Amino acid sequence: MTTRTSPALTIAGVTAVHGRGAKARATLAPTSLDIRPGESVAVVGRSGAGKSTLADITLGLRLPAEGRVLVGGVEWCTPSARPPRDRRHLVQGVPQDPLAAFVPRWTLRRSIDQAVRRLTGEHDTESRVRRAAELAQLDLELLERRPTEVSGGQAQRAATVRAVAPGPAVLVADEPTSALDARTADAVSAALLSVTQELGIALLLVTHDPSVAERCTRTLRISAPR
Ligand SMILES: Nc1ncnc2c1ncn2[C@@H]1O[C@H](COP(=O)(O)OP(=O)(O)OP(=O)(O)O)[C@@H](O)[C@H]1O
User: Fold this and answer.
1) What average pLDDT does range 68-85 have in this prediction?
2) Number of domains in the chain
3) Which of 33, 139, 153, 159 has the fewest CB atoms in 10 Å of its CB?
4) Is residue 52 in contact with ligand 1, taking CB distance under 6 Å?
5) Which domain holds residue 178?
6) For ligand 1, is residue 49 a contact (CB within 6 Å)?
7) Is residue 226 part of a domain?
8) pLDDT, tens digit (0-9, with 9 covering 90-100), for 121-146
9) Residues paired with residue 174 on neighbouring β-strands, in sequence order
10) The CATH number of the domain where 175 resides is what?
């Protein structure tokens, strides 16, 4: 049984290898980590340390070479097993470029509704989207615009709404504010931290920004494998 204090995300001895055969190269040193509901962990380290690789493994976009990832104490992925389809809503991502989260020709609302329906099987998305937008401090009317008709900060808040509305246990944000000016980046990362805390979501946040890392519950520094 999962209790309030048991980890939402467990990363146990995970490593990564890029390439095959003679070209195979270790790209993530053995990494272990627990994040409880509502906690946030900043993943920091030099360029090439493996931060995005760790984010991709947690999202289920690539498999670890060793180790395993658990979500809510239940196996999420291993070197031989992808995340199960019916649990995909449990881990959501906020990308570096918020435009990547949306279909360019659609309103933000349509992309969000479609993602929530696909991931939850629920047809009525209204209350989920309204609550997520309220917590992300995004005016609901802005969701009627297309991705290029809002500011970078508004688009990133909308990407946060898209990620939290399906009800994930874990949110993975890979450099979510690096394309924004310092003041907007500050406000957007504050919103991300408060939404996840409020909803009891575990946040894995890849960042180069020390002021963002400082606001997280903990920092995990990773180094490239030797
Ligand atoms: N598709 C790929 N093919 C081969 N090697 C890759 C690939 N993607 C990443 N790598 C390598 O894996 C290592 C880790 O890359 P990763 O993108 O995870 O680092 P990072 O810490 O996120 O870096 P940055 O801060 O620059 O974004 C690097 O040495 C990189 O060159």
Assistant:
1) 96
2) 1
3) 139
4) yes
5) 9-221
6) yes
7) no
8) 999 999 999 999 999 999 999 999 99
9) 206
10) 3.40.50.300
Question: Separation of 33 CA from ligand 1 center, angstroms?
Answer: 20
Query: What's 151-186 look like in SS3?
Result: CHHHHHHHHHHHHHCCCCCEEEEECCCCCCCHHHHH
Residue 1 in any domain: the answer is: no
In a domain, 185, yes or no: yes
Residue 128: CB within 6 Å of ligand 1?
A: no
Positive or negative, the CA dihedral 168, 145, 105, 149 is: negative
**54 C-alpha to ligand 1 centroid (Å):** 10
Half-sphere exposure of 114 (CA within 13 A, CB side): 9
Position of tokens 């992925």? Answer: 77
Kindly tell me the burial class for residue 107, based on how many C-beta atoms sit within 10 Å of its own C-beta (0-12, 13-18, 19 or more).
Answer: middle
Atom of ligand 1 nearest to the CA of 45: 21
The response to whether residue 58 sits with its C-beta less than 6 Å from ligand 1 reads: no
ipTM score: 0.96
Residue 4 in domain: no
